[in-house]
Amino acid sequence: MHMADALLSPAVGGVMTAVSAYAIGYGVKRIAGDRLDEKKIPMMAVSGAFVFAAQMINFTIPGTGSSGHIGGGVLLAALLGPFPALLTLASVLLIQCLFFADGGLLAYGCNVFNMGVVACCFAYTLVYRPIVKRGITKKRLIAASVAASIAGLEAGAFCVVLETVLSRVAELPFGVFVLLMQPIHLAIGLVEGLVTAAVLCYVRQVRPEVLDSPLENTHIAAGVPMRAVIAGFVVLALVSGGFLSIFASAYPDGLEWSMEKTAGTAGLEREGPVYEAAERAVETTAFLPGYGLPGEDSGGAAGTALAGIAGSVITVILAGGAGLAIHAARRSRTGKAAAP
Fold this sequence. Notes:
By secondary structure, this protein is mainly α. The chain has one domain (5-331): Arp2/3 complex 21 kDa subunit ARPC3, CATH 1.10.1760. It is built from 12 helices and 2 strands, in the order ααββαααααααααα. It has a two-stranded antiparallel ribbon with strand order 1-2. α2 (40-55) runs parallel beside α9 and α5 runs antiparallel to α6 (138-166). The mean pLDDT is 93.
């Protein structure tokens, strides 16, 4: 559901960038105020790496000629809490945009809002948490994961439609576009919910304290070992990005499929200095555009595997580094306040 720049007007792209920047800034403030749990910093790094890698694996939606991939917002929120999850997913989306040319720079704010704010802050808080907080059982975990994933994707898909309408993209009239976007993302949300449930059930079995912490707004106790969970996500990220991504579906994703059915093409184009500047910026930074080696045929195994591993490593550095920076800043301020 990564939006391209051509789907937005500069005004809508700018406003949504400001909205998402505010959400991220507010999230950072909340994380610092809640004294970010040190044990969640490596979890931000490795769970973010897994979401980056898992988003590369498009799965076919039978009978549609379309495909989808997980968004990961509900999964991250269940592991980390809403605001650390938002910061982690924003890091993933930034890496995808700048280094792999996946999602436009002008559209970055929309993508953060549609895939991050909606899933991490609203779907988790309003759907997942009330179901699970009554008592975490395997059945409740599965029900909450599926319901929240579907709610997050459906709301995010509807936001995409609204953003294109506000941008006056004539090729994508509201009525037709929304009637295609919502059903296809319902199917994608169901698959994402099952994947989310499988991962969370694994975490619940190995280290239940990880899922209890966001629900109860508490820190994981100092003596709780995290090696098994962290190692599990490292393995999942490497296998997903370095191997399973090679077998990703070649069908267009839900957004591209809906665009093709509505406008006859998924490759809409816009001209203007804002679009040209955004495109030049991404061309400068993207070292593996389209998750492939320069000059390599689309879907080449070597380039895809390299992109999956490289992106996972960069996510570990950026998401983990963001957590460390917030934690260090908090300790610095606390230390200065305590000094005589």
